[in-house]
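Why predict the complex rather than its parts? Because the way molecules touch one another can change local conformation, and only a joint prediction can capture that. The input here totals 610 residues.
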Amino acid sequence: MASATSLARRIAPPRLWPFLAIAAILVVGAVLAPLIAPYDPNAQNLLGRLRAPGTEVRGVVYWLGSDELGRDLLSRLIHGARVSLTVAALSVVASGIVGTVLGMIAAWYRGIVGAIIMRLVDIVLSVPAILLAIITVAIMGPGLVNVVVVLAFTRWPRYARVAYGQTLGLASMPYVRLSRFMGGSTLWVLGRHVLPNIVGPIMVVATLEFGLMVLFEAGLSFLGLGVQPPTPSWGSILATGRNYVTTAWWIAVFPGLFLFLLVLTVNVLGDHVRDVVEGRR
Amino acid sequence: MSAAREPVLDVRNLRVRIGEADVVDGVDLSIAPGETLALVGESGCGKSLTALALIGLLPEAARRIDGEIRLSGERIDALPERVMNRIRGGRIGMIFQEPVASLDPLMSVGGQIAEALALEGPITPREARERAIAMLDHVGITKPELRVDQYPFELSGGMCQRVMIAMAMIRRPLLLVADEPTTALDVTIQAQILRLMADLRAETGAAVLLITHDMGVVAETAERIAVMYAGRVVETGRVADVFAAPRHPYTALLMRTIPRLEGARKVALPAIAGSVPDVASWPVGCRFAPRCPLATDRCRAEAPPLAPVGAPSQRAACWHTDRVSEIAA
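Output of the joint prediction:
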């Protein structure tokens, strides 16, 4: 029998604690941004432009420096975490739902329905995601909501493939056949027996995709196609920083560092989720 | 009830086709209330496809191209899927071969039994749980109020099969279709499960279609037997009559393969030479002819009909029913 402590260690072994701490800090920071950010992220101060980290200007301390409009970089990064995490979370949820549902349907009905869905998967996967995203944003216009829609639209095939393969395997399981035998409708069987049994592998894809979504959002914002100014986003701050990289390195370095830490953390945790899920089977 | 009572299941001329071949080729079956019919044969003889065709759940590649199926007199072979869904699980119960794999690993035992009830009609979770506990108790599971919340991995194979039986019987079906229900179990557990099925059958009056390749199981549980070979019923009758004097060479040879306690030791167990031919190469005449010690030119040219022979209940499809006693054990 596994005791409570050994179970806890299996779910969250000590080597993951630093990453869990980073994840917790980022999430709490994003949620409580207005409370913990030292200043208004959009407050400009033309006397305090491009100040180095630690500079104090008229009682305002720029812990991580200031940008070209004298806005506090730390405050902007804390608020930017909201955008990064929200966009990543929403797009993972949206693409995960769409992909899982379509993958299950494809595997359940197979035949013509399955062929159409899975060829669509191939088509979407064969077009570079960032290119597809740029085209879609170009048509629909930039903005936070549109970025989520774009990411959901370009990323669902990953989930669809996993859901398809898993459902195909489950469809021949006796308990799935039995539920169908007892009169369970397609919706009933998929919802009660198939979905719960494929959630593990789907979660693995979702955590790994989450890091990628953070980067995609940053990339789109960097290109000016994502979140629009003055709303702070790590990608757009990074883009501005590029112009000043020789004179004010901190504007580019800190958002880059935050991105690096977030994606690293998500990937390490995602790998762990995969190990736990696969070890369970 | 009289001898003329209506059969629970009555099948006439069932044909199932896969590709170009009729893998079930004109099967007739009939089961009276409270009766167990054993459908016996080697792997690949069509017995499972027959059962799946009866309940309208054939795999995609297979099609039922002919046959009338009546459940308590009512035609069910042409019903729309929606109506069939109500009949399956309600008036027909099913037990699969692999008891552990037949339970959803992520759903509690009570949840799965409740599912059978929920598919019948609206039911409160509390009532479903109570009925599940009562049914678990009924199928001989100890501490049912504890087991009801356990998951399949916490149960033994025999207990899983009891849960399966509980799921199949909780809606009091007229017909229970059991596909190799004891094959995956230990011999001692097999006997318990067979006894449980017999008890429930006696109590509810359900008819049982038992699919098996185990002649020992047939002898213990069934009243009547239908022996299938290569998609056809080759012999049928009361188990006692058929076992006493089989009238088809295949039945006789199958009986000889049952290991016996008496007699000389260290004698090789008898086997039937060859295997069931591939569907594509079924012979024109009697399909058993290539493996039959009694086969003559007539057998290879002309398929024998299933005709009355021997005991009143007995029918066999063989041209040489009078010579079968030569090869009987």
